[in-house]
Design brief:
The chain is of the alpha/beta class. It contains 12 helices and 10 strands.
């Protein structure tokens, strides 16, 4: 398939590149660093070779979310968004953008998101999990908290989706990972942390207040589709004060989209299709942490219908983001 659209594709700037070093072995860091900072060489070459026509780019993780000082978070987010906008202007048929938002200051985050969508033409925003905030050394905020109500209202008004992207939990708050660094990051901690955050949003009533708001989850939904029956089954026995109006699975099928990023396995794809339908799944790579070669070699040949391949590889993204390529 030669005209795929990918939407969990990352870049870094000089102020955030160091955040990604922990996810690379020393012998591969030089190459990963180069690819994160690059827009016009390896990135476009790989897209061309493996059939990705258009990539929606986002800042590496955790970046802005790991800056407790609101003023600094605002500065870094704005700089990253301006750099991305410059590259999109150079290659408008190849790149789109997700805004970085400084949610340490919800009002400033709403203003920056509005600027990115209305002035820079971005397709929504991507947030790298919880935000660290000033106060205690390990103080963090999750986005179902009351102080984000106005931010979500502003985001919903823009009618653009948001991508809930992983970050590692802070070890001071999750000591279960202590001594087992091989289980952090994309091995397990990413999915556990991100799925919990997504479930908080889905069960908080957010999508009752803003029923048109759409969330994107990578890596085949961070495991949620494979556990949604049990989640709803248990909650039917007692909702325990849960404020949302519907079952969690209803939000999964009406307010969540799922990508293939970094999870290139046909049984996983088929199971997700059975749970949410092929209209809510979109192709992604997770470049440069994953390779276009691996994603495309799998997706272009996996055992699904050509109609579903076209929808997942391109059409669903065109519909969600209003793309006319």
């Amino acid at each position: 398939m030669k005209n795929k659209i990918a939407l969990e594709e990352h870049f870094a700037i000089d102020l955030t590149i160091g955040d990604s070093q922990v996810y690379a072995r020393p012998e591969v860091w030089t190459g990963l660093k180069s690819n994160l900072l690059d827009f016009e060489q390896q990135r476009l070459d790989q897209m061309d070779e493996w059939g990705t026509e258009f990539s929606i780019l986002s800042l590496n993780s955790p970046a802005v979310q790991a800056i407790p000082e609101p003023r600094r978070a605002i500065e870094v987010a704005r700089r990253a968004n301006d750099i991305l906008a410059e590259q999109i202007a150079r290659h408008p048929k190849r790149f789109g953008g997700f805004a970085a938002v400084p949610l340490q200051d919800p009002e400033a985050a709403a203003r920056e998101l509005e600027r990115c969508v209305k002035e820079l033409g971005f397709h929504g925003f991507l947030v790298n999990g919880f935000s660290q905030v000033e106060g205690a050394l390990d103080a963090v905020v999750y986005y179902d908290a009351p102080q984000f109500a106005d931010f979500w209202a502003a985001a919903a008004k823009l009618e653009k989706p948001f991508y809930m992207h992983p970050r590692d939990p802070l070890l001071s708050r999750e000591p279960i990972y202590e001594g087992t660094p091989w289980l952090t990051g994309p091995t397990w901690a990413f999915a556990a942390e991100t799925s919990m955050h997504a479930l908080r949003l889905m069960s908080s009533g957010l999508f009752d207040k803003h029923p048109a708001l759409q969330m994107i989850l990578g890596h085949f939904g961070e495991g949620i589709p494979f556990n949604i029956w049990r989640i709803d089954h248990i909650l039917r026995k007692g909702r325990r004060g849960m404020p949302c109006e519907k079952e969690v699975g209803e939000y999964l099928r009406s307010n969540v989209h799922i990508t293939t990023s970094g999870n290139f396995r046909t049984p996983t794809l088929l199971s997700t299709m059975l749970e949410v339908g092929s209209d809510r799944i979109m192709y992604s790579v997770d470049y440069p942490f994953e390779k276009h070669e691996h994603a495309a070699s799998w997706f272009d040949r996996c055992e699904i219908s050509e109609n579903d391949r076209q929808k997942i590889g391109r059409d669903n993204a065109c519909k969600l983001f209003g793309l006319s390529l």
